[in-house]
């Protein structure tokens, strides 16, 4: 009899455990959230609430739903190893995926990415950083972020853009009974406006921006130019800020190129609203030039000395006037043989050829 009682108790206990599992297991399972993190071209460490979870590419399907602090930490290799970091708040929803796609630049100004998460409901919400960035959906402008819209289910093309920033385009999937929340982070554009002003030794470019964040931080702006130099098609060796400070991608490599006679490319950092070189920038450029290219031999006859110019170089023209074509360029401080004079112009001899320079930026010795 006792044997049957024990068997009954065991069967009853098993039944209760099975019944409880049917009730509570879905609850526990339903509280799990999914996090996916990808970082283009860079492997970084993933932290959630300051706890290390792993490295990218990262996927976890058993995280606790709720509000968390996400942090990505990595290192970029170049002439030096640079630590980079991205930190933001995220909200993980039960049984849905939160996808983080991030591209690290040399600093926060030049990093970009997006975070996509799902909530109960419908439509999509788009949050942009910076705010007031223009949003296009399937080629149609729909407003500026932040905004909400309710497109049809399926795949759509999303584009976010703003002057001074690099446009970001992504493909999104709108699902039934879910509201898609998308945070888009735009990188500032270090090459907003670029102008080549001289070719030779050195080759000189002007960089213009109206972004106060870059004008106030030329060191960070320089990092962006050096990091994304392939986008401009030139390997910039040195950059000069309006205050005259010179930034080198690699000062040792710069010195070696100069010593070996290799071509040097220099950039001048300027405001779009004030395109004139400061006296400090002109002085820094003049100081840099003697180390790059030797001055031509001093002639023994009548001479003309080139004076400082707003651009750092002076055009030598085929005739005595600005309508004539430029045959070459000369630098302030250099001296050349005087061949002839005309009203407001000197004809000089430069490297075996002759041309005219304005008396406004030259003086007869």
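Q: What amino acid sequence fits the structure above?
A:
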């Amino acid at each position: 009899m006792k044997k049957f009682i024990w068997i009954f108790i065991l069967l009853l206990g098993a039944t209760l455990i099975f019944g409880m599992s049917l009730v509570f297991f879905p609850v526990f399972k339903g509280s799990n959230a999914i996090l996916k993190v990808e970082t283009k071209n860079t492997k970084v460490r993933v932290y959630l609430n300051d706890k290390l979870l792993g490295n990218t590419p990262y996927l976890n399907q058993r995280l606790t739903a709720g509000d968390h602090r996400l942090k990505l930490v990595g290192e970029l290799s170049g002439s030096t190893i640079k630590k980079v970091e991205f930190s933001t708040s995220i909200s993980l929803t039960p049984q849905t995926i939160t996808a983080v796609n991030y591209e690290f630049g040399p600093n926060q100004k030049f990093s970009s990415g997006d975070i996509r998460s799902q909530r109960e409901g419908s439509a999509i919400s788009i949050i942009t950083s910076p705010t007031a960035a223009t949003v296009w959906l399937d080629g149609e402008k729909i407003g500026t972020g932040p905004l909400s819209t309710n497109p049809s289910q399926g795949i759509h093309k999303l584009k976010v853009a703003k002057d001074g920033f690099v446009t970001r385009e992504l493909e999104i999937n709108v699902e039934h009974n879910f509201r898609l929340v998308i945070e888009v982070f735009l990188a500032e554009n270090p090459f907003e406006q670029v102008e080549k002003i001289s070719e030779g030794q050195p080759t000189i470019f002007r960089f213009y921006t109206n972004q106060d964040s870059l004008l106030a931080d030329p060191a960070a702006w320089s990092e962006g130019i050096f990091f994304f130099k392939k986008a401009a098609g030139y390997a910039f060796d040195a950059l000069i800020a309006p205050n005259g400070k010179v930034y080198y991608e690699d000062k040792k490599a710069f010195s070696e190129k100069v010593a070996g006679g290799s071509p040097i490319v220099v950039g001048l950092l300027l405001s779009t609203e004030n395109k004139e070189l400061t006296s400090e920038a002109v002085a820094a450029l003049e100081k840099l030039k003697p180390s790059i290219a030797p001055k031509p031999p001093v002639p023994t006859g009548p001479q003309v000395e080139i004076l400082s110019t707003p651009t750092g170089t002076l055009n030598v023209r085929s005739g005595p006037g600005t309508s004539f074509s430029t045959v070459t360029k000369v630098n302030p401080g250099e001296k050349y043989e005087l061949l002839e004079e005309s009203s407001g112009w000197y004809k000089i001899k430069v490297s075996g050829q002759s041309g005219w320079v304005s008396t406004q930026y030259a003086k007869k010795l």
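Q: And what stands out in the fold?
A: The chain has three domains: 27-185, 193-292, 303-364.
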